[in-house]
């Protein structure tokens, strides 16, 4: 039976109309959405700079995977109605804990730095190599409620108690009530002497929390310095966000230890990393699966679903099924699980030979 393609005609009619609007210069209101689509799979090794000659390793490759993210245009909105490789995300869901796109981009850079430090710590611990972590204090990333703080202020103590990590800050404040007064010691950029200021604690709870919570009215970041032997730096260029943590950790460990960890395979993956080696959930994993498959990866490490709200593992497996890839999805909850899986591949190849 022959059917007229009304959807196609509607699509091209809308497209022609939008092109006409662009030509005439008629203003179009910006859309309150971000667009997410498959990005790329990048060889991690060039991002990891080792002062000493790295340990010999195999011919395989570790790939970090990215998603393309940007402000949505009207054409993006139209195309998203017809494409499975493009998704519109409401602005309010993307800009969690940030005020605008500029702050979001800055947050992504800070998250990348945090993931790099965690990767170094986790990899050096597992490889049993010399490593030292110095916690410098809690930096004010952004101000949520006016309280005398400025972006970049480095908090080092509250009421005489050392506050060197954001976990220290949260632990101290959870015992306090809204309206309590605390004396905060912090260092301000271009100021020689520390500043002490009395702050009245405000309600800083997000609407979804369902109950009030006392806080300073800032978004905090732990500022730390990681020193290692050999010295290793991770420089990811314009790539932002925390989701490359697992792949950075595997690559650093591979550089520190002898043996062929990749077994000459193309290994892609994603997942945040903390200093204890725990792999965390990320966004847009379905697009990362597609990017890895296009690169020819044979293995894709995905964060394992361990909590009721987790869904990375489920989405990754579904995405792999949809594109009919031969790439194996391997869910992991820790760096150690990923490492054990790769080491088991070595034993399997030895048995096969």
TrEMBL record:
It comes from the Bacteria. Residues 236-345 form the Lon proteolytic domain. GO terms for molecular function: ATP binding; ATP-dependent peptidase activity; serine-type endopeptidase activity. It catalyses: Hydrolysis of proteins in presence of ATP. GO terms for biological process: protein catabolic process; proteolysis. Its EC number is 3.4.21.53. The active site is at 243, 288. It is an enzyme of class 3 (hydrolase). Keywords: Hydrolase, Protease, Serine protease. Gene3D superfamilies: 2.30.42.10, 3.30.230.10. PANTHER family: ATP DEPENDENT LON PROTEASE FAMILY MEMBER (PTHR10046). Belongs to the peptidase S16 family. This is endopeptidase La. It comes from Baia soyae.
